[in-house]
Amino acid sequence: MQFSKELKYNIIFALLLILVGQTWQYSNDLIFNQGQSRWFKPGALVLFTTYNIAYFSVYTLNYLIFAPRFLKPNKIFQYVFSFVIMVFCFAAIRFFLEEILLLKLFGFHNYNLNRPNIVAIYLTDSTLYALRPILFSSLMFLFFRFSENKSRMHQLEIQHQEAQMSMLKSQISPHFLFNTLNGFYSDLYDKQPETADDILKLSNLLRYVTYDAKTNYMPLQKEVEFIKDYLYFYKRRYEEAFYVSLFINGSIANQKIPALMLIHFIENLCKHGIINDPENPAKIEITANKDTLEIQTENEINPSENYMDKGIGTTNIRKRLELLFNKKYTLNTSKQGSSYLAYLKIPI
Predict the structure, then answer these.
(1) Residue 19 lies in domain
(2) Are 143 and 8 in a shared domain?
(3) Final residue of a domain: which of 102, 134, 150?
(4) DSSP state at residue 39
(5) Does a structural domain hold residue 204?
(6) Alpha carbon distances (Å) from 222 to 58, 212, 253
(7) How far is CA 234 from the centre of its chain?
(8) What is residue 65's DSSP assignment?
(9) What average pLDDT does range 22-28 have in this prediction?
């Protein structure tokens, strides 16, 4: 849908360029007067057509290939190099159409093919002529990306607000709850320090969900600490029958990731998988690379749960990932025998 919309507007824009900009420039070359009659010059009309073929070939090349890949602040040198390539393409297309094809088909050409500086002429002209399609296609590309990002951020904000409202509706006076937990912690600190420490962990976990994670992004270190606290309470619940292995690879620091994204996979594993089987322990592996973050989980499937159809929110996670990263992420879920595997890779 988005591509068809962009294609439609680019075609309209191209027609306007031909009818207004370029036709005005070449009007004196295209038409000549004979008495009171006005006639098209066939040769000039053909050259006008070859020019536009080169023009919109470079326009398309930049819009579909070079601009999406290199029109970024950190790739400015690659984009300058791609500009040189587009100039050569513009010159090559014109040279082939005007000095080879037209000469063979109609017996005329644009310049004198035998001139020793014919290649230099085409390169010089094309450097100037190619500026227009590169500039216009870049502006159109940036316009659509700006509109797309603005719409995505608006949808993300709405989704985030809905999640906050849903979370707040499920809470009963968070301030009262935290004050009560702090009271329990103070009363038990001297008599039952282990229980007091559990209360403090629970308070920190709830505070993180309620207040800290209100923003779209959180430091990776805090997300990992939240996951460890979450797993801690499951371990307390199952006591010695809790078999979940957590592996952390790479440098875990203040890299920003979407808030409460990773906990989705941990929650699915704990709530819907088998985590008390010593023969088949569940596995969680988080890997922080230079530019990406990966999380992979594996667990035995609980026969009473339908992993693929209900209760795990994978569709909502995929929508959120799409809003945040467009297509620049990988999310795979699969069943292999009696095991369920989930894998996520996102940029950081």
Answers:
(1) 2-150
(2) yes
(3) 150
(4) E
(5) no
(6) 48, 10, 9
(7) 35
(8) I
(9) 48
Judge if 124 and 215 occupy the same domain: no
Q: What is the DSSP string of 193-232?
A: HHHHHHHHHHHHHHHHHHTGGGSSEEEHHHHHHHHHHHHH
Domain count, the chain: 2
Calculate what percentage of the chain has a pLDDT beyond 70: 74
pLDDT at 24: 45
Q: Evaluate whether residue 166 is within a structural domain.
A: no
pLDDT at site 115? 65
In a domain, 298, yes or no: yes
Instruction: Check whether residue 239 and residue 327 sit in a common domain.
Output: yes
Residue 85 has pLDDT above 70, yes or no: yes
CB 343 within 8 A of CB 293: no
- Mark which of 129, 150, 171 sits at the end of a domain: 150
Q: Is the confidence at residue 191, as pLDDT, over 50?
A: yes
* Amino acid identity at 222: K
| pLDDT band, residue 323 (cuts 50/70/90) | confident
Could you give phi then psi for residue 54, rounded to 5 degrees? Answer: -65, -40
Q: Regarding predicted confidence, which is higher, 6 or 321?
A: 321
